[in-house]
Amino acid sequence: MNLITRTAELAKFCSEAARFEYVTVDTEFLRETTYWPILCLIQMATRDEAVIVDPMANGIDLAPFFELMDNSRVVKVFHAARQDIEIFVKLNGAVPHPIFDTQIAASVNGHGDSISYDNLVQSIVGERLDKSSRFTDWSVRPLSEKQLRYALADVTHLREVYEHLRDELKSNGRSDWMRGEAEILESIETYLVKPEDAWRKLKLKANKPLDLAAAKALAAWRERKAQETDQPRRRVLKDDAVNELAIQRPTKPDQFERLRAVPRGFGRSASGTEIADLMKQVMQIPPEDLPKLPDRRRGPSPKGAVGDLLRVLLKAVADQEGVAARIIATSDDIDEIVLNDDADVAALRGWRRKIFGEKALAIKHGKIGLAATRKGIVEVPVASAD
Asked: Is residue 177 exposed (0-12), middle (13-18) or buried (19+ Cβ within 10 Å)?
């Protein structure tokens, strides 16, 4: 088992890996009790060699690894890459490139939506992986032989999976589909969490502009606090507490005691004091400066007949293309298309627009219809009223 614990060993492997077309990459990390993931292992494999790097080893410098990740001549192959890349962005401030994500490639090639690595290996390689070490504590040293074998399997089988999917993309004529996905993965904006945008991840219950202003301020406060103290968001403040605080907007310690979503005495804590001050600031925002609630009454309802037709179209296109419907468009995408022809959604960009978005807009405006045939759902032209 090739376990790298010294910088010189890492530099030697990375120098040799730079000669190959691609390198497969995976990580093991912990995040249960922290905001930022703790990197515990890095696994890599070329066609000739597979190694495990211990980033927790005393004195090791990961600079050679990050240099390899930045080498544009070597494709970096991941499966479900986002969490791995988020770690690298935090440690190195840059996104590896170019990237090939086998989970995305599998979806594009019709292997199913968000397929797991072990299922993909079983489907393509014909091997069944031992996943019994998946939830072990990767920060504890020494690592067992079983853990190391498990970790190494995540990059050794990935070589065959990558080559199969790469060739399949070419034969299906869908390499350009992957390029569009890679652009998202390789954008550093994908991994930077801005506190002012944290409210977008909440299922808000705001009914008034002041509720929304308070929720935005609270979500940003929680995000900054979680980042500064390296705690999960839920440990700082749970989502239901953010919603309740946004609606009730307590400004005095005793007002917190009437809330169900915060613990007793919270209003007298340092965090309670900060939130009370924050709510005072929110309540002083002039009415004309308050954020507007999303307008969900523009045009036809997303849950009405037009939305239903677009969902039927989506299923028909997915069946025709042999891919999971979700990779073409989400339910939220369809809702936005019903409301806005120029909606900023993936379904109206790139290859998705070509195979689905244009047809969706044509149906919305009565230019084409749908018909059920023995061969399935097909599009039919609509006769002009003229």
From this structure: buried
Pair (153, 258) in one structural domain: no
> Residue 292 is encoded by which pair of tokens?
């507007």
| 56 and 142 share one domain | yes
Tokens 């840059």 identify what position? 94
Q: Residue 302 above 80 pLDDT?
A: no
Backbone angles phi, psi at 108, to 5 degrees: -65, -30
> Tens of pLDDT along 55-75?
999 999 999 999 999 999 999
Instruction: Assess if residue 297 is contained within a domain.
Output: no
Whether residue 296 lies inside any domain: the answer is no
Q: Which residue has the tokens 């978005």?
A: 357
181 and 317 assigned to the same domain: no
Beta strands in the chain, from DSSP E residues, in sequence order:
3-4, 22-30, 38-45, 50-53, 75-78, 99-101, 368-373, 376-381
Domain final residue pick, 141, 160, 190: 190
Q: 298 lies in a domain? A: no
Q: Are the C-beta atoms of 352 and 367 separated by less than 8 Å?
A: no
- The whole-number average pLDDT for the span 96-100 is 96
How many Å apart are CA 276 and CA 262, to the nearest integer?
Answer: 13
Count: domains in the chain: 3
Look at the block and give the residue holding tokens 């705690």.
231
Rounded CA separation 132/312 (Å): 40
Domain that holds residue 80: 3-190
Decide: helix, strand or coil at residue 246.
Answer: helix
Q: To the nearest 10°, the Cα dihedral for 377, 381, 385, 386? A: -170
Beta bridge partners of 29: 39
What's the pTM? 0.87
As a whole-number percent, the residues of the chain with pLDDT over 70 amount to: 96
Task: Say yes or no to pLDDT of 384 above 70.
Answer: no
Residue 1: pLDDT band (50, 70, 90) is low
Over range 283-293, report the average pLDDT.
94
The answer to the question of residue 71 being in a domain is yes
Buried b (16+ CB within 10 A) or exposed e, 339-365: beeebebbbbebbbbebbbebbbbbbe
Q: How confident is the model at residue 298 (pLDDT cuts 50, 70, 90)?
A: low
